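Handout, section 3.2

Students often ask what a structure token actually looks like in practice. Rather than define it abstractly, here is a full record for Type I-B CRISPR-associated protein Cas5. The first block is the sequence as you would receive it.
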Amino acid sequence: MYRITLQSSTAFFKNDMTITSIQQTYDCPPLSTIYGLISAAVGEKVEPISVGYIFDYKYKTEDYELIIKQLEKSNKQTYMELAKAGRITSRHDVLQGCFGTIPIKREIMVKCKLYLYVEDESIAEAFKMPYYTLLLGRSEDLAFVKEVKKVELKEDCHNITVGKTIIPFQPKLEVFGRLCSMPVYITDEYPRKVTKAGVFMILQNDHQKIRNHNNMFLYDEELKKGVYIHKEK
């Protein structure tokens, strides 16, 4: 198994299941983000594969941001006429004109770290020189690779502490966390659509000590954390 350590100043994983005045973030990336991150490093779509990860951040804050509204059909002709006449000379004209902007309030996680576990050596090597930019959410949430290391995750380890991650929900679990519907696969084309989702438990507390009697978690002895591996299906 290979462990890839990534860091980023900020991260945002939009929780589409919340309907509030604030765009909320998951406290841990969904599998769709992880597969997208791996695909960006490799340079082509990679899914599904067996993968595990632990995600942590220092604190969460809120920020205001301007986003571009969707272009209305009634404004499309006006926009085309302005462009043809050469009257759109800067991005500011577009933002203030046919598109327009709206302010939103967004949750942002700060000082983030992701430990990513993969079995394929070629995927691990790809992170040493990623094909595309690595992101933990939005285009501004740039991530960099701190380390790529071969590690041995131990089996049959009991009375262990688990890392912050997500696991598929099951009726009987030793751990507790927040239940959420999260995307697993999304389309390549824009606007992106979720093609598969699942119900997961987000483990937000990395102080949970479990017996691990069913060997659900492997153990990273260096980090002293249990790691859940999402198996290839």
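Discussion prompt for tutorial groups: The chain has a mean pLDDT of 88. How would you have guessed this from the sequence alone?
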